[in-house]
Design a protein that fits this description.
The longest helix has 22 residues. Helix 2 crosses helix 4, helix 6 crosses helix 9 and helix 8 crosses helix 9. The radius of gyration is 18 Å and the shape is globular. The chain folds into two domains: 86 residues, RNA polymerase sigma factor, region 2, helix turn helix motif (Rna Polymerase Sigma Factor, Chain: A); 73 residues, Up-down Bundle (Butyryl-CoA Dehydrogenase, subunit A, domain 3). 29% of the residues are buried. With 188 residues, it is mostly helical. 68% of the residues lie in helices and 0% in strands.
Length: 188
C-alpha cells in the first residue's frame, strides 16, 4: 500500500479544512480513525455489516452536513460518539422490527484480555475476566474508552453524552471493583 506523506496538522486545523469543503481533509480523517472506529464498533456489536454501514454513514454524514457541523476539540471523540449513536440507532431499529442484536450488548473479551495481558501476571487472568464480566455495561465501556482508546475523561463524556463527573465516577467505581477482587496496581 502506498503511504502518503502528510504534514502533521492538529485536529482544529484538519476539522476547519473539512468545514471548508476540502475533500482531502475528509480522506485524512478517515485514514487516521477508521481502524479505531472499527475496533470500537465491534465492542458495541459483533455484527460486521452493522459496524461497516455505521462507519460509512458517519463519514457520509460528515461530508454532507459539513457546513452545519460544530467546531470540535477532538475529532476522535466526535467520531466515536457519532459511531456509537449510529450503531445504537441501527440496533434499536432492528430490535424494534424483530431482526437483530440487542443494543449495547458487547463490551467484552478483547479489551479485557488486553488489560489483563498488560497489567497483570498470567495467573490472575481468569480472576480478572470473571470480575470484569460482573461490571455494569457502562463501567465496562468507560474502562474500554479510557484504557484502550486512550480517551481522557472529557472525551469519554462527549462520546457517551454524559457529564464529566459521571465518567469519573464510573471509572473510579470500575477500577475500585477490579482492585477489590484482584490486586491491580494503583497506577491505573
Amino acid at each position: 500500500m502506498k503511504r502518503q506523506n502528510h504534514i502533521k496538522i492538529n485536529d482544529a486545523q484538519l476539522w476547519q479544512k473539512l468545514l471548508n469543503g476540502q475533500a482531502d481533509a475528509l480522506e485524512l480523517i478517515y485514514q487516521q480513525h477508521v481502524d479505531l472506529l472499527s475496533t470500537y464498533g465491534f465492542k458495541l456489536t459483533k455484527n460486521k455489516e452493522i459496524v461497516n454501514d455505521a462507519i460509512q454513514d458517519v463519514f457520509i454524514n460528515l461530508w454532507q452536513k459539513r457546513s452545519q457541523l460544530p467546531m470540535v476539540i477532538s475529532i476522535k471523540a466526535y467520531l466515536l460518539k457519532s459511531l456509537r449513536n449510529r450503531i445504537l440507532r441501527i440496533l434499536e431499529s432492528r430490535t424494534l422490527s424483530g431482526h437483530g442484536d440487542q443494543p449495547n450488548e458487547a463490551i467484552q473479551d478483547s479489551f479485557e484480555q488486553r488489560l489483563v495481558l498488560e497489567e497483570l501476571a498470567a495467573e490472575r487472568l481468569h480472576q480478572l475476566h470473571l470480575t470484569i464480566q460482573k461490571l455494569p455495561s457502562r463501567q465496562k465501556e468507560v474502562i474500554h474508552l479510557r484504557y484502550f482508546q486512550n480517551l481522557n475523561t472529557e472525551e469519554i463524556a462527549e462520546v457517551l453524552d454524559i457529564n464529566y463527573q459521571s465518567v469519573s465516577n464510573l471509572i473510579h467505581k470500575g477500577i475500585k471493583t477490579l482492585r477489590k477482587h484482584i490486586h491491580l496496581p494503583n497506577k491505573l
